[in-house]
Amino acid sequence: MLHFPQWKLILVIGIVVAGIVFALPNVFPRATMENMPSWLPHKQVHLGLDLQGGAHLLYQLDENEMTEDWLGTIRDDVRETLRKNRIPYIDLMQNVAERTVSVKIREGGDFDKAYSELRKLSVPVGGTLGGFSGAHNFDVDQSGDNGIVLKVTEAGLTQRMNSAIQASIETIRRRVDAFGTTEPSIQRQGRNRVLVQVPGISDVERLKKLIGETGKLEFKLVDPSANAAQLAESKQVPPDDDLLYSTSTPPVPYAIKKETLVSGESLVDAQPSFDQRTGEPVVTFRFDATGAKRFGKVTQENVGLPFAIVLDGKVISAPVIREPILGGSGQISGRFNVQEANDLAVLLRSGALPAKLTVIEERTVGASLGADSIAAGKKAALLGLMLVVLFMFAAYGLFGLFANIALLINIALIFGVLSLIGSTLTLPGIAGIVLTMGIAVDANVLINERIREEIRAGKSPFASVEAGYTRAMSTIVDSNVTTLLSTLVLFWLGSGPVRGFAVTLSIGILASMFTAVTVTRLMVVYWMRWARPAMVPI
Amino acid sequence: MFTGFHFIPPDTRIGFVKLRTISWVISALLTIAPLLLVWKVGLNYGIDFQGGTLMEIQTTESAANIADIRAKVHGLNLGEVQIQEFGAPNDVLIRIAAQPTEKEQQDSIAKVKQVLGDDVEYRRVEVVGPTISSELISGGTLAVVVAMGAILLYIWFRFEWQFAVAAIASLVHDVTGTIGLYSALQLEFNLSSIAAILTIIGYSLNDKVVIFDRIRENLRKYKKMPLTELLDLSINETLSRTVLTHVTTFLAMMAFVIVGGEAIYGFSLAMVWGIVIGAYSSIYVAAPLQLILGVRREGGTATAPAKAKAAGAAARA
Fold first, then answer.
1. pTM for the full model?
2. For residues A147-162, b (16+ Cβ closer than 10 Å) or e, as one string?
3. What is the pLDDT of residues B231-240, one digit of tens each?
4. Pick from A379, A501, A517: which is nearest to B195 by CB?
5. A425 SS3 class
6. Facing residues of A62 across strands?
7. Do A368 and B1 touch (CB under 8 A)?
8. Which chain A positions have a beta carbon within 8 Å of B241's beta carbon?
9. Which uninterrupted H or E stretch holds B251?
C-alpha cells in the first residue's frame, strides 16, 4: 500500500533537481551566471526572433533562371563541340519551357559523328557507383531528320539545384557574417529555398540588399569607338557591345565590350580602404595568379583606354588605364561612402550567387517590440500562474498545495528541457507554458476528484488515495495523448513562433504527466506516512 | 485543516441529456450560425493567407498622425492600404495588399520606409508573397484535417467507433464555433489562428476523453441502467472535474487576454472562447450523441477495459 521503492524516490528527486539546475541559468542575469562555478549548466533558453528581435527571410532561387543559364551553357558547349569537329549545323536553339537545346546537322553523313560527340557532353548524375546509376544530367536524342535534341533531366536539374543551393548558403553565410550578429542561421528549406534568420539585426534593408545582390563582378573594356549617349537614344547597339548603365544617379550609359577580361572568380581578396591621394573610400582587391597575369596583359595592351568595372550588369566605375597594372591588385572607386565601400568588399569577398534569390517571405521584429512582448508575456504568465495556484488551493486545500508545488516543478522542468535541448522560446511558446499549467493541473484535478469519490464510497484514507491515483491514470494518459497528437501536427505544420508553441506545449504535457502523477504522489505518500490522518483532507 | 471548497456538490444530478431537445437546437445553431456568418460577413484574413505586407510602426511623438501617414502611404499607389491604430496611440498598423510579384512586394516596403522617413520606428515588418500564402492555406487546412484524422483513429482504437464519431462531431462544432468568433469580431485570421484551432481541438478532446472514460466505466458497472440516465450520471460524476479544469485553464489564458499584449491578443481570445465552447460541447454534444449512435454494452466493451488497464499499468511502470 502506497508503496514507493527507494530507487524510484531517488530517480524522481534526481529528475526534479536536474530540471531545476538546468532551468536556473534563466533566472539569473548573464553577469551573475558568469561568476558561477563552471560545472553548473550555463545555457539559457534561446529566445525566438519575435522576442529578441531580428529578421526572418525566406529566399527562393529562381529555377527558371537557373535552367535558362544552364541551357545557355549547354548551347555553347554544343557549338564548341561541333565547331571543333568541323561539323556544319543550323538552327541551334534553346527552349526553356521544354528544357531542351536542339540543333540540326547540315550534312546527313556527319550525323553519326555529331551524335556520338554530343553524347559525350552528358555526364551521369550523382555519386556514380561504377557508372551504374543510369540517370544523366541531360538526355541526347535524335529528332526528325538530322536533328539532335539535348533535354535536361529531372535528376540533372535536381543535382544542379542542390549544388546551387549549397553554394548560395555558403555565399549568404559569408555576407551575413559581415554584420557580426550572434548566431545567424542559414538553412535550406525544401527544394529551392533558403531560410535566413538573423537575430538582433536592426538594419534589415541593408541585409536584404547585401544578400539579394548576385555579386557577379566583371572587368570589361569600354568601346572607345561608340558614343554611348547616342546609342542610348537610338537603341542600335553594335553586336559586340552591351549598353550598360552606371550605378550613379542619374544613370550614365556606357557602351561596353561583351567580352569579359577578368571575372570576380579570380579575386582572392577585397577590402574597404581609403584612396591615398583623395581620402575617398575605395575597395582594394587582389587577383589570384592567373587573374593577375591576365589583368596585367590586358592593361598593358590598353593603356590610355577606359575599362569598366561591372557588378551585376551595372557599371560601378570606368577609369582610364593610366599604366599597366602588373601586381595583380588594384582599387575600385565609385564615389562610395564608407558603408557602401564596406558592403561592396563583403560582396566581392563572398563570391557571386549562382542564381538570383528572391524574398518570398519576410518577418522582422524590432528589438523594442521584442522587449515589449517579453514583458507582456512575463506579466501574463505570472498573473496566470497566480490565479491557477490560488484556485487550486481554494479547490483542494492541502492537496491543492501539493498540486501547486508540482506545477512549479513542472515549469522548472519545461525551462530545464528547453535550455538543455537548445529549443527556442517564442511568445506563443509562453502562452503554451501557460496552457500547460491548466493541463498539468487537470491531472491532479482528475486524481483528487477520484480520491473524493473513493472516500465517499467508504474506502479508508490510504486505500482511497491509492485507488485515486491508480484509477485516474488511464484517463490521464488518454486525454494527454490526444492533446499531444494535435500538438505534433502543429509542430509539423508550424514555423517559427507557432512551432515554439508546439514545443513548449508538448514538453509541458510530458512533464506534467511526470510531475502531476509521480511528484504529487510522492508528496502525498510521505505526508500520509508522517501524519497518519484519520481522514483524507480533501 | 482546510480541505478546499466543493464548488460542485458531490450529489449534483443535473439532467443534461434529458434536456437534449433544447441543447440540440442550441448546438445546431452554434455550428451553423458561424458558417452563415463566414459566408455573409467573411473572415478577416491576415497576410499569411492573403499575401501582402504588414508593418507595425511607432511614432516618436505621443500620438501618431494617422491622417498624415494615410496620405503619404496612399500616395504611393500600392493598391488597397489599411491604416489603423494598434494598441497604443503612437502605434500604427499599416497593411498593404499583395502586389503582383515578389519583387514589387519588396519594393513596396522600401517605398513606405522612404516616405515615412526616419522619425518612425519599424517594430514589425511582415511580407508574405503569393507563393507562400497559398502554401500556408493548404498547409493549415491539411493540418486541421490530419489532426482530426489522427484523433479519430486514436479514439477508435482506445474506445468504440461511436465515441470516435461523437468526438469528431463535437470537434467540428468547436472548430466552427471558433471560426465564428473570428468572423463575428473580425479578428485577424492568420497562422496563429490555425494554431489556436489545433490547440482547441487537442484541449477540448482532452475533456471529451475524460467523460467517455467515465461512460465506458459506468457501462460496465450499471448493466441495466437506461442509457439516458447513465450518460447523465457520467457527466455529473465528472462535472466537478470539468468545471475545475476549465476554470483553471480559463483563468490562465484570461491572463494573456488581459495583459499579454496586442501581439497575442487574437490567439488568447480564441483560446478562451475555445475553452468555453469546448466545455459546452463535451456535455451537450459529445455525450448525448452516444444516444443517437447507440453505443454497445457487450462485445467491444469487454476488450476496451483490458486495453485501458494495460496502458495504465504501462504508464505507472
1. 0.81
2. ebbbbbbebbbbbbbe
3. 999 999 999 9
4. A501
5. strand
6. none
7. no
8. 442, 445-446, 449
9. helix B239-259
Please write the tens of the pLDDT for every residue from A331-384. Answer: 888 788 888 888 888 888 888 888 889 999 999 998 888 898 899 999 999 999
Tens digit of each residue's pLDDT (9 = 90 or more) over A216-243:
888 888 888 878 788 778 777 887 888 8
- Measure in Å the smallest separation between the Cα of B307 and chain A Cα atoms: 10
In degrees, rounded to 5, the angle at the alpha carbon of residue A326 between the alpha carbons of residues A321 and A327 is 120
- What are the phi and psi torsion angles at A254 (to 5°)? -135, 140
List of chain A residues whose C-beta atoms are within 8 Å of the C-beta of residue B271: 431, 435
pLDDT for B131 equals 83
Cα A450 to the center of its chain, rounded Å: 49
Cβ proximity of A221 and A259 under 8 Å: yes
- From chain A, the residues in CB contact with B207 under 8 A are 479
Cell of A457: 464510497
Does A163 score more than 60 pLDDT?
A: yes
ipTM over 0.95: no
Q: B287: distance to nearest CA of chain A, Å?
A: 16
List domains and CATH numbers for chain B: 20-44+133-309 (1.20.1640.10), 52-128 (3.30.70.3400)
CB contact under 8 A, B205 and A483: yes
So what's the pLDDT on residue A412?
A: 93
Domains and CATH numbers, chain A: 6-53+366-531 (1.20.1640.10), 213-361 (3.30.1360.200)
Q: Do A369 and B241 touch (CB under 8 A)?
A: no
Contacts of A378 in chain B (CB under 8 A): none
The angle that helices B161-185 and B265-281 make with each other, rounded to 10 degrees, is 140
Decide: B149 and B2 in contact? Cβ < 8 Å. no
